[in-house]
Design brief:
Elements lengths: L1 H4 L3 H13 L16 H13 L3 E5 L2 H11 L7 E4 L6 H8 L3 E4 L10 H7 L4 E7 L8 H10 L3 E5 L7 E2 L2 E2 L6 E5 L12 E5 L2 H10 L27 H32 L6 E2 L12 E5 L3 H13 L5 E2 L1 H4 L8 H5 L7 H5 L11 H9 E5 L6 H22 L1
Parallel strand pairs: 2-3, 2-4, 4-5, 5-8
Antiparallel strand pairs: 1-9, 6-7, 8-9, 10-11, 11-13, 12-13
Bound molecules: pyridoxal-5'-phosphate.
């Protein structure tokens, strides 16, 4: 939750700029806004941070995924390969685009694997929605090779991995389009918000139009604008953008602290026989928002979770059973519970969602415990946590050895 750790005077100053003009809308009203354009500044700051040619801020990470899919041309009836471990928003965005999610295996990177993607490809596969999970990044060399070989569209949901990179390229910028979330739990927050990124001018324009009812955003008379495409209201407000702007400026500092803390945690906990960590394809590119610890098997991981709870250790996620990020908890997907018909009901599911065979994913998530890293932890706080964690883990592993 790094973004919220550092809220303060700078946020208040940027918000006040907006309050003084009274222009909360991100477009037009040029005279009244007195040169204050927070959404534009926010977008420029994100583009600078990640090295994107274009960035477009919207109302949430979820709507940013929708923009990324739309701007990449993913729509009705397209099969899209998705991970079974992600925040549900990724899968919802595919379904509400009218497309059909196909679940594939992840590996110890916690992201879709190249092998998993390959096995899930059918003649109807149009795209892969790759989600970079838990602050880390996918195995991009191998995945890009599959994308090229099979002529697929790559869309990246880096909702949890802004400021992560692989061999110098930021997550979100490998494929046609990408996006980040700025909700309350991310490395930088706007309260609520999201940012779409791309290096393609064409995709950027599409996302920009799509996220505001198709408005062209040309000229300074909103009522007289043309509408090159249909769209919807995914706009961010100036107040949210003002917060996102300040928070984005802090990300390099947070990333540095996170990495220092994560290294220490891995060094200390790695001394315990039986403790390993999720694979980080490029350790220099880790945003390090989570320590992703792996136990030898699901049973032991569950025992460690019980031991953490019994010993009052908080701040971790055991996605396998108690978080809403894993397919085992997605009863609505499996049972087709929808408010209104989607293309899954109309065209038929591309897989039997009730009986998916994803053994590698089950095993990986069963073994995974993720600790949210606080960039503001003092050495004393960290040492204290590590000694409690070590004792708890050893208690379990020694007992069962
Ligand atoms: C991978 C991923 N994608 C999308 C989202 C949705 O973002 P938001 O909560 O800003 O709508 C999240 C949020 O947790 C996420 O983790």
């Amino acid at each position: 939750m790094a973004g919220t750790e550092y809220y303060g005077a700078e946020e208040r100053k940027e918000i006040n700029d907006v309050l003084e003009t009274g222009v909360f809308f991100r477009f037009n009203h040029d005279a009244q806004r007195n040169g204050i354009w927070k959404a534009k500044e926010f977008e420029a700051e994100v583009a600078k941070l990640v090295g994107a040619k274009h960035a477009h801020a919207v109302s949430s990470g979820s709507t940013a995924v929708s923009c990324a899919l739309a701007a990449a041309g993913i729509g009705a009836g397209d099969e899209v390969i998705v991970p079974p471990f992600t925040y549900i928003a990724s899968v919802e965005a595919v379904i509400f685009a009218g497309a059909l999610p196909v679940f594939a295996e992840i590996d110890e990177t916690l992201c879709l694997s190249a092998e998993g993607i390959k096995k899930a490809i059918t003649p109807k596969t149009k795209a892969v929605l790759l989600v970079h999970m838990c602050g880390q990044m996918a195995q991009m060399d191998e995945i890009m090779a599959v994308i090229k070989e099979h002529n697929l569209v790559l869309v990246e949901d880096a909702g949890q991995a802004m400021a992560a990179s692989f061999k110098g390229t930021s997550t979100g910028l490998f494929g046609a389009t990408g996006c980040y979330s700025f909700d309350f739990f991310k490395i930088a927050t706007a309260g609520e918000g999201g940012v779409f990124v791309t290096n393609s001018e064409e995709a950027y324009k599409l996302a920009d139009n799509y996220s505001d009812h198709g408005h062209s955003h040309l000229g300074n008379n909103r009522g007289m604008e043309t509408h090159p495409v249909l769209g919807f209201n995914y706009r961010i407000s100036e107040l949210h953008a003002a917060i996102g702007l300040v928070q984005t400026r802090r990300v390099p500092m947070i990333r540095e602290n996170n990495n220092r803390i994560k290294s220490k945690m891995m060094q200390e906990l790695g001394k315990i026989t039986g403790v390993t960590f999720a694979t980080i394809p490029d350790p220099n590119g880790d945003s390090a928002t989570f320590l992703n610890m792996m136990l030898p098997n699901t049973e032991l991981a569950q025992k460690v979770v019980d031991s953490f709870n019994a010993n009052g250790i908080a701040g971790f996620n055991y996605w396998y059973t108690n978080m809403y990020h894993f397919i085992n908890q997605w009863e609505h997907i499996k049972e087709g519970k929808v408010a209104a018909k989607t293309n899954i009901q109309l065209l038929g599911a591309p897989q039997d969602y009730q009986n998916l065979h994803l053994p590698k994913t089950q095993e990986t998530i069963g073994r995974l415990i993720s600790f949210g890293i606080k960039a503001s932890w003092t050495d004393e706080e960290l040492d204290n946590l590590l000694s409690k964690m070590s004792a708890s883990i050893k208690e379990v592993l020694v007992q069962t050895a």
